[in-house]
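Hi everyone,

Forwarding the result from last night's run.
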Amino acid sequence: MIVKNNLYRMLKEKSYLVLAVLIIPITIFIAVYVATMAPTDLTIGVIGSESFKDTNGVSFDKLSEDDHSISDLIRGKYDAYIIEKNGTYRVETSKGNGLKKQIESFLKNTQEQKTGSIQKVTIYSTSLNLLSLALMIFSLILYKYYFDERRGINKRIIESTISSSRYVLQHVLTVFITMLIPAVIATLILFPLFEIKLKFAYLFTVSLIVCFSSSFGIVLSSFMKKNQGALLVGTMLTVITSLLSGSLFSIVSNDFIDKLQIILPQKYIGILGQNIDQNANLSISSIIMIAVIVVIFLVISIWKNDKLIRN
């Protein structure tokens, strides 16, 4: 009932439908364009006594401690820094955890006198990370009808015999459908245009992102009085958690960050993207963690809405 009613209102008002039809494909286009247009060659700065020979597509520049600048990473002068101190290595990069882990694996193989390589293949992970950021924010916009009902519009729905769980899940399903269909269609069209191999694992991960974004939107909306407030807070949380998860930029690890990232779904989305880039099987543990977070968000939303309806 709620799904049908919301979709009908969306078709009638058209503005939110147009947003979904335009914003999501444009987001995917930008994400894929950014991922494919990035230079394939790597330039890595090396600070310390260690030195490495240039390999195919990877050049190593010997730098002094004074030349070590985070701004050069952000501006793209260097893709990463390898910092050697007392025989131990630390990797800094603004290109995400995928490249960081490749460099760490390269260093480990070098120390063990094994062959190793570094490849700047991050098309799938980069596009998924950017898509997750956009969909988390866009989901909050689509919960407009949820706030309309809380202000008294369509009170008959709230006052009917419908349960709190069905009420919440139908709103979530509306947003899920509205985001998933344009996302899948845009992916099916744009990937062949950019000559990117379309993988089922990628489409599955997109569906997982849409599911998470829908649950993120409802749990935040449940605790906000107005749609604008949910959008403001949600945008801040999305950007902050994306940064802390390392999905946008690689950050320096420490005990606090490592523990915090356990509860950040963007970390697991990034891992799934890395799996696709490396032609590996999707991480089951990452899929389970995202699913658990979705369930937790839905349970909290149902509990909160049950209190709202009863009051």
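Residues 40-111 form one domain.

Cheers,
N.
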